[in-house]
Amino acid sequence: MKYAIPLFLFSFQILTGCSSLSVSETKESNAKTALTLTPNTIRLCTIGHHELAGRYLATGLPGNYQRPTLPELSLMKEASLWERLSRESMMAIPDEPRIRYYRHWYHSRPLHISTVSERAKPFLFYIYEHVQSRGLPAELALLPFIESAFDPDAYSHQGAAGLWQITKATGKAFGLTIVPGYDGRLDIAASTQAALDLLEYLYARFDGNWLHAIAAYNTGESRVRKAIKRNKSQGKPTDFWSLDLPKETEHYVPKLLALSLLLKNYQPWQSTLTFIPDHAVLAPVMIDQQIPLKQIADDAGLSREFLNRLNPAYRAGLTLKNTDNILLLPQKQLAHFYQQNKLHYTKHQFRIHFIRPGDTLLKIANGNDISINTIQQVNQIANSKIQVGQHLFVPVPESVQP
Predict the structure, then answer these.
(1) What gap in Å lies between CA 396 and CA 386, rounded to an integer?
(2) Which of 1, 96, 282, 283 could lock 328 by a disulfide, CB 3.0 to 4.6 Å apart?
(3) Among this protein's residues, is 147 annotated catalytic?
């Protein structure tokens, strides 16, 4: 052991490339050997900046070194929309037998949950975003889970169609176009607006009672109103659980509440629910001419089949004449779509601005004669933060459009 420490220091010196460390021996009264490091003769190892790049070291960091911000770290977990829905689901869930039944029903059918959540992946955030923008309960975004199992081509034997299972009469009453070659009930954007309009209307008609409104969405306003009137005349309670409604409707509301309850205990179902990111994956584009969907798919870099899946309303494979057709495209394909020089059929033209060092929203807005608010709305930016290397969609003034 007498030479163990000097040997260790010598080995460290060789391995690290340091040329000298002064070691002296001093004899103490107990005859043990001690080591003294002489400050004047210690030479620190020099580590080049290229060896420091991207690393965290206890000492020796260059003065201009900056730790990467959290979003740049590769281990950051992407937020899940299911987690947000879990947090924001606010409807009261009573301890009611029908809810318990459907809670067990969902738990015993993980394949159903997995299949439907996979179908919901392209559409759920888009629907949630519109529910949120109206200040409606987040649970309403889950209604297509109950109505159509998130099948955008779903038809019922009663003549309802689409994610929201809207009948022709109801669709036309709430502004949907249904003509040869196009069925607005299958249009994700148009049917979502119509369904939420209907739900808001029913909520107002039933004096702010969401369970009555949701039941009426399923079976019709008249049936729910008659059931309430009948209970009043008999001196019975008029809450949803006390009403005599069609069997399907009596189970419709508990299905939704049981699904909401499942999401409130989201963690055990994390591996069963298909992951859906908590951000927009679809973006609307407005086309005011009759164009084959095949051309739109080619210009967006998509297969015809995938574009049809996102826009199933166009049964003839063409957009409509003399109207503003709102088609949904993947957000990540928008830059490619708007960079195609041959695009003259979109109502709004955009150029792609790649953010460079020194850019600010004010600078970009002034340089393109538009407002900061316009840029924020088009790009769905909540604040003024932008990052080098990202791109922005900048509207082209009509005076310079082709």
Answers:
(1) 20
(2) 282
(3) yes
